[in-house]
Fold this sequence. Notes:
Layout: H1 2-18, H2 25-58, H3 60-63, H4 68-95, H5 105-139
Helix pairs in contact: 2-4, 2-5, 4-5
Amino acid sequence: xxxxxxxxxxxxxxxxxxxxxxxxxxxxxxEVLNIHDKLMIDGEKVIKNKxxxxxxxxxxxxxxxxxxxxxxxxxxxxxxxxxxxxxxxMDWMHFFKDDFKGKTEQEDLDYYKSEMxxxxxxxxSYIKVTRESDSLMKVYQVKINGR
Length: 147
């Protein structure tokens, strides 16, 4: 009886280790799409922050500052980076193939993994530029999200 238990345990162990542990293409695809959906909401904030900073540039608030040229340049650069982050998202969406069908499951998986890397880079740029723009708007007391 002891030998049978050991044999069964060994067989189960071999089966567990031989099973596919890598995620399938559809799971990775769904994760990519979930990130995309979140970024669509974040993209609205990117656009709103850009519009608020555009308005700040033409306001009297900066013209009254002794270092207004430096501040305007800083705001303009941030607006450029907000635009770049938004364009990066638009480019990703333009080239993403939601219905990608490779010749093999591995090709599908490889495609969606590469798209995961790209969409994560977009996410990183959104996070960084919105944090910076939120901070700058706080300095100038621009209302953020109705506050």
